[in-house]
Amino acid sequence: MLYVKVASNDNVAIAIKDLKKGTDVGDGIILNEDIPQAHKLALVDIKKGDPVIRYNVLLGYANEDIKKGDWINEFKITLPTPPSLDDMEYATNINYPLPKPLRTTFLGYEVEGNPYAGTRNILAIHTTVQCVTGVLNVAIKRIKEELLPKYKNVDNVVAINHAYGCGVAINAREAKVPIRILHNLVYNPNFGGEVMVVSLGCEKLTVDKLIDPIYNTKENVIVLQEKKGFDDMIRSIMSMAEEKLKKLNKRQRKELPLSKLCIGMQCGGSDAFSGVSANPSAGYASDMLVNAGATVMFSEVTEVRDGVHYIASRCVNKDVRDKLAKEMAWYDKYLLEGDVDRSANPTPGNKKGGLSNIVEKAMGSIAKSGHAPIVDVLSPGERPTKSGLIYAATPASDIVCGPCQLASGITLEVFMTGRGTPYNLAASPVIKVCSRNELKDMWQDLIDINAGPVATGEMTIAEKGSELFKYIIDCASGKIKSKAESYNLANDLCIFNPAPIT
Ligand code: CA
Q1: Taking the domains of the chain in order of start, what are their residue ranges?
Q2: Ion ligand 1: residue ranges with CB closer than 5 A
Q3: How far is the CA of 411 from the centre of ligand 1 (A)?
Q4: pLDDT tens for residues 153-192?
Q5: Among residues 213, 131, 212, 126, which one has the least CA distance to residue 166?
Q6: CATH code for 122-248?
Q7: Which residue stretches of 314-460 are H helix?
Q8: Structure pTM?
Q9: Cβ-count burial of 290 within 10 angstroms (0-12 exposed, 13-18 middle, 19+ buried)?
Q10: 375 close to 388: Cβ distance less than 8 angstroms
Q11: What is the fold, at CATH topology level, of the domain defined by 3-78?
């Protein structure tokens, strides 16, 4: 077969490779023009104004007459209005049978007082304000060279640098978002419950706003304005870091039930295969993890907005459905204030990869959440109080979603890509799953799992999902490093700040 049709009612399908004009793709369809890999071809004649259907979902309306065998790109489809958020049906689709977990335990680092365990043992040095970043970075370099090699049980030292903290409207309504994210990052299980903060001394985001006041002691907090110059600053940071490293070095991995594992799912650089191969495989692994008691988060508001009614039908009760609607409405308003809407989401790369609009991208994106019921919905950076599949509302931007999920407590992220991105987080391993064989061939040493064989029909979603499940457990257990992790790749932590800068 030269194309993939997802659902029986679909009137379009995607090309599994670059196809030439005149190719007979079967079922009496002869291509009227060249169709690039992952792009859509019309399976039937579609009249102007008629629906274009993929995933059994309305992608939009044809804005010209389309002939069987034509190439359908973003210019030929008009976006439909987004689904209403009022009175969405809930709990109508919560009994889907989930796959039996292949394993039920992992090796993690327990953290006192935290329901989740770490997958890595990291010293995180938090900051209240960007002003301290330069000094901290010099100190971190020396800590890594001079101290870290002495503490073999500690994986890394990571600066939680960010652009927030001062010159901001700290009392603005939405300032709670960046503050919550930075506050909750402190308690990520990968940081072992050790608290270390470098502050300046005159910033708006005070230490007591960043951490719970009980931790605001001279054992945990350095104020640069109280130090006698640069040397004293570096000496103080290194000496506190060494005390923390001594404690972290005593942590040991233990065999723990998967209920102690909390991971995130994200995608970036998606293409039209993402929703056929990589994301459904991730969804299968997610279902298996959830069935074993683990917590899995998926996010990216603009990428679920058009499929929100499918998500609502999987919410376990009215409260969860209402929280979902509230987060979506907040984001609609946030976009509206910038005079844009969800159509601002697909990137030029997404479109080159065959994704015509946000509806098509959303349907692929949602597939990574599998079929499990949704037990809770979180605001950006909120920490979970329930186990299972959780919708953690965040922007879809890779480098903004990642820090939000870390703040919500994920200790590992699974990242699906079709076009390719070397994205990684310093504070947790990121496992890359690609949607097509060509990307794996190009990026052998950056892609962990290739879901391409699912797109070509050589493997099933269950087989690939099982492979990913085992890889997640091995990576969480420290038996393997993810590819990006092994090179120490790390993107900046871009903290979501919808509030004004002054
Ligand atoms: Ca993303």
Answers
A1: 3-78, 122-248, 262-486
A2: 268, 396, 398
A3: 17
A4: 999 999 999 999 999 999 999 999 999 999 999 999 999 9
A5: 131
A6: 3.40.50
A7: 318-337, 348-352, 358-366, 398-407, 437-442, 452-455
A8: 0.94
A9: buried
A10: yes
A11: 2.30.130
